Amino acid sequence: MGKERLDKLIASMGRYSRREAKELIRKGLVLVDGVPAESAEEKVDGEKAEILVGGEDLGYRRFTYVMLHKPAGVLSATEDARQRTVLDLLPPPLRRMGLFPVGRLDKDTEGLLLLTNDGDLAHRMLSPKYHVDKVYYAEVDIPLDDSDVAAFAQGIALGGDLRCLPAGLRIGADAHQAFVTLHEGKFHQIKRMFASRGKSVLYLKRLSMGSLRLDEALQKGDYRYLTEDEVAKLYGDL
Ligand code: URA
């Protein structure tokens, strides 16, 4: 990774902007290996040095991983000329970190969205080679039955030569409710799978991706950083 300017390094940890980092350094509130930093331009190796800001170790990480409870009505994109994107739900320091969503959710879909700048993890999580399961909760307009479960298990044909991999379908307490497990991610896949059974999806929420589950304590539109353990488990899924 090598050395970086101290203000940039602090800003990359997400809590403070670059301007705030400069101010904290100026006030002598930033300690590098126990010594107050003298300049924002000081070059520091974030992986080796201990950096305390106001006495607190901000936990330098090479990459950032954020779990967002995506609400309906925002795009799973990093920018859009007209519409709000998931990045607009994050505070400015996090918006500057090059985060992108790992696998898109439709505008009207809610639930778990992982945002990171770790391209390698994202690439592998989305690759069919690694079969990272995605679990969704869906509500449909017409009650589901065992023939739907069997069709999902067989692999739904979406028209042309497009065939889905076998998918899990568990009917909920009410036959309009379903838990769907996908091992791949085609465009509008769940809606198209149900449509092929003559059913429309009225509500869709992603609950998990591999070992990562949506933290139900997160309100819609809120985010939190992944824990070290969650990141390690995601790598363990691959
Ligand atoms: N399948 C869909 O149809 N939409 C989503 O947002 C995710 C999976």
Task: Give a written overview of the molecule.
It is a single chain. With 238 residues, the chain is an alpha+beta fold. It has helices at residues 6-12, 18-26, 92-95, 119-126, 146-154, 189-195, 228-237, and strands at residues 4-5, 30-32, 35-36, 43-44, 51-53, 56-57, 65-70, 100-101, 110-116, 134-140, 168-171, 177-182, 201-209, 212-213, 223-225. Strand 5 (51-53) and strand 6 form a beta hairpin. The protein is elongated and about 70 Å long. Uracil is lined by residues 105-106, 109, 188-191, 204.
A few lines on this structure:
This protein has 238 residues and is α+β, with helices and mostly antiparallel strands.
Helix content: 10-25%
How many strands, which pairing sense, and closed or not: the largest β-sheet?
9 strands, mixed
Low-confidence stretches: none
Shape: elongated
Specify the number of helices.
Answer: 7
Each distinct ligand: uracil
Overall mean confidence score, pLDDT: 93
* Run of helices and strands: EHHEEEEEEHEEHEHEEHEEEH
Distance between the termini: 23 Å
Which percent range describes the beta-strand content?
25-35%
Question: What's the Cα radius of gyration?
Answer: 21 Å
The number of distinct β-strands equals 15
Summing up helix and strand content along with how strands pair, one would put the structural category as alpha+beta
